[in-house]
């Protein structure tokens, strides 16, 4: 059955701006393969997407505060 696969990357850079680490995650919807999701906890894709969204929000807030300090 047709499904959707989401690709998103999580990048982390230390305070020195070096040692960049990238972690590319791929999430497929339950429509693509229900049997594949049976091996994992139900709704794992939503959990991963939620964690990624929270992490992106936290990084955005941190960058905003850092820029305000410099100003």
UniProtKB/TrEMBL annotation:
Keywords from the named record: Membrane, Transmembrane, Transmembrane helix
InterPro entries named in the record: FN3_dom, FN3_sf, Ig-like_fold
Transmembrane segments: 40-63
Residue ranges of domain Fibronectin type-III in the record: 1-32
Protein name: Fibronectin type III domain-containing protein
Source species of the chain: Candidatus Sysuiplasma superficiale
């Amino acid at each position: 059955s047709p499904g959707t696969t989401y690709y998103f990357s999580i990048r982390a850079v230390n305070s020195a701006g070096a040692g960049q680490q990238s972690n590319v995650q791929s999430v497929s919807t339950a429509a693509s393969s229900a049997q594949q999701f049976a091996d994992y906890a139900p709704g794992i894709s939503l959990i991963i997407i939620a964690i990624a969204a929270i992490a992106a929000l936290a990084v955005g807030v941190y960058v905003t505060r850092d820029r305000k300090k410099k100003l």
